[in-house]
Amino acid sequence: MNQTAERYQQKLDQVVDYIYDNLEEDVRIDTLAEVACLSPYHWHRIYKSMRGETVANTIKRLRLQRAADRLANSDMPITDIASRSQYTTAESFNRAFKAEFNLPPAAYRERGSHAKFKRAMAENNPDGFEVEIIDFPETVCAAVPHTGSYMQIDQAMGKLFVQLQEHGLLNENTQMMALFLDDPELTETEALRSFACSPIDPTVSSPSTLETQTLQARQVAKLKYQGPYADMSQAYQWLYGVWLPQSGYAPADAPCIESYLNNHQQVAPTELLTNIMLPLGDEL
Q1: In the CATH hierarchy, which fold is given to the domain comprising 3-108?
Q2: pTM of the predicted model as reported, rounded to 2 decimal places
Q3: Virtual CA dihedral for 67, 95, 100, 240, nearest 10 degrees?
Q4: Residue 29, number of CB atoms within 10 A of its CB
């Protein structure tokens, strides 16, 4: 990556960090230009070219993603969720949310993809979803570290996307993955550690500016999940709390891996596909 491209990346990273820190505030485009220290006439074109979406789409997507998380995983009133998402009326929030998730907020809270996993947990049903035992090969990845909420791993994904693009490593076959190092039930949200990852050819020397992570070869339990990333915590709870205790397997001392089979720029959140891979040790 040349120095000019690196400086642009750093400026846009500052913008993304600012957006995440101020999702519940009025984020103005001219303010973001100041954060980026770039011309207000041109910076948003640079952002779209380097990030793959407009800054307005980024803000809207992240606000609705946070709203979906609160609907699926909390009892916060919908009116409060709408207000925190910077919608001035319930009607405008309902329209925007339904357009993104195919259900209005109240129906999503009851019938979103998280609801199926909640039912399977309530029924203690280990056969509610297909889990495949596969051999995961050793995989060398370009990686960007992230500290904080796992819901914000997208922050590191954007940075990794730009780095892959700048190093000529981005193409139609590029795979995006994430590695989660800590248990969110035991670790404070602000201290959670993860990596945005993308497999690279280990026989080709990678640029020195790219951090790498090597995922070890091992057996994993693969759960193919369909739905918004915001709902995925319920899938994890079912996998760990219902399937694993009745599977005959013990978990390995290794972090979970997520492999993303499509992306939010191509499909609706309800059509997102993710392989959740739980590393396994010996059978019990």
Answers
A1: Arc Repressor Mutant, subunit A (1.10.10)
A2: 0.86
A3: 40
A4: 12
